[in-house]
Amino acid sequence: MGLITAAVSSVSGSLADSWKEVIEPDEMSDSTLLVKGVAIKKGSNKRGTENVVSNGSIIHVFPNTLMLLMDGGKIVDYSAQEGYYEVNNSSSPSLFNGELKDTLKDTWERFKFGGAPSQRQYVYYINTAEIKGIKFGTRQPVNYFDNFYNAELFLRAHGSYSIKITDPIKFFTEFAPKGTDRIEIKDLSEQLFNEFMDALQSAINQMSVDGVRISAITSKSRELSKYMAQTLDADWTELRGIEICSVGIASISYDDESKALINMRNKGAMMSDPTIREGFVQSSVAQGLQSAGSNPAGAGSAFMGMNMGMGGAGGFMNAASQTNAAQMQMQAQQAAAQQAANTWKCSCGAENTGNFCNNCGSKKPAPAGEWTCSCGTKNTGRFCGNCGAKNPNEEWTCSCGAVNKGNFCNNCGAKRQ
């Protein structure tokens, strides 16, 4: 039993009168994975198939579907190409691959002899379009070690992902529940969800190992899809014929302890800047003055209390301001020193900080004693700081007494030691 392509013109022409029936897929939605074929009689609606596909019947294959022609438990032919096909019991399998990968034919060789022969022919249709909008969410916080914060943080992630059946024969024989006429994504959602969340945990851990900051995960959907595809490759692609197409993260939230650690780290980073610290000190003083002026007991009483408080805390605030000022001055001096170190005077008399003179355009001269190694690194010492090679321009004395600069003596040819 096999398939032969039916002429499209005959579908709507007079030759259609000779066809016994047309097999089409039962109703399918965007979330349908598999349905059984149903027979359409002339002048009637779709009805349940009688599990007999007569010789000469026409099978209609729609876009983004793969049709399996079955004889009992045996797959006798398939087509992933849109069109009309006539069942011919005397022909051999045609195997219309469509746009699916050639590995589909390898899978066919594995499963075509499965099951016991019978006279019960029927048709299955498998959806090969991308199945979108499959929701996921972490039931428990997922641990994530962030190198930036140097802490074990915990996050929750919610979003959706999409899958595609890339090897329909493998999906049908290895994963689809047997004896069913219809499979919706919801029928497999619990199993897929559990496996997906295990893979998500592994993918997130791998992103942690690769140094991705926890705050950047929401912008890494494409990378996360690749991590997921690699993690699920063995279980879903190789064993079940399913691939992850995309993973979209709608939201990421942290548990309370992680939020506290992140806030503490961020505040500490801000307060390490002396200009921010000094601004905090001055704003605290200004806020105290403002509060004193609006005190209902009278500004005089408030300022008296404030003066008493300032007497006790004034020393600390003055010391803090002096420390901040000293650090700001040190930063300014370091910046000035850095700028001075980068300043050079051109032969035309102009002073510059860049690599070229802003007056005549001459290139900045190389520092005295600077040399470029064969690896491309610029150095000033005797050895390359990148590869460890000796400075080829450095003078050396050969055992014969000759003074040289290269790697070989220009007098006796001995190699430089």
Throw out a few tags for this protein.
417 residues; alpha+beta; four-stranded antiparallel beta sheet; 35% helix; elongated
**Largest sheet geometry:** 10 strands, mixed
Q: Distance N terminus to C terminus? A: 82 Å
Globally, the shape reads elongated
From the alpha-carbon coordinates, what is the Rg to the nearest angstrom?
38 Å
Helical stretch tally: 8
How many β-strand runs? 20
In helices, the fraction of residues equals 25-40%
Q: Which stretches of 5+ consecutive residues score pLDDT under 50?
A: 9-16, 113-117
Question: Which sequence of SSEs, written as H and E, runs from N to C?
Answer: EHEEEEEEEHEEEEHEHHEHHHEEEEEE
Beta-strand percentage range: 15-25%
What is the average of the pLDDT values?
76
* Protein structure class: alpha+beta
